[in-house]
Structure formats: C-alpha cells, structure tokens
Design brief:
Elements lengths: L10 H23 L3 E2 L2 E4 L1 H8 L3 H9 L6 E3 L3 E5 H10 L8
Antiparallel strand pairs: 1-2, 2-4, 3-4
Length: about 100
Amino acid sequence: MALDYLSPESDEVKEALSDIRETEQALKTAAENYRPTIREERYLSSAEVCQYLHVSLRTLQTLRDTRQISFTLVGERTILYPETGIRETLLKNLREVKGL
C-alpha cells in the first residue's frame, strides 16, 4: 500500500504557499493604509497632505503659517492634519472653471 506524502512539488503545498503569499500581501497593504482615529477624526502626516494636495512641504508650511489649513502640533516637531479640515479647506477654495 503506497502512502501519499506532501512535497514542495505537490499541488496542495503549492496552493497553500500561494494562499499564504496572498494573505501576507493583504496584511501588508492593510498595515500601510491603517490610520488610527483620535476622537472619531482621522489625521494625516505632512507627507500625506502634500501628496493629497499636490503641494510641496514649503507650500504646506505657508498654508499653516497663514492659517489656511487646520493642523495640530503633537510634541515639539510632529504636525498632524485632520482629514475633515483638509476637505473643508478644499471645498472652501473650490472655484468653478469657466470656458470648458
């Protein structure tokens, strides 16, 4: 009577390893996109806001200095931006494009 053994070449092992890789990738993606909330508010980093608004760090600093964008200073050097504040700023400054 022959016994079936699992080997790295068997279909079952290949399928299991593929499932593990897919799960690992899904967990990495979730970890990269996870942003904890503080009192129901999601906060963004300076880099995320720059990417979101398509502006440089210097422009973002000008927006902070002129109080055109809401932010929270955490500690001495960490600046966080409430996502709803960013959206409100965008809506407030939204201009209709004419001639299109």
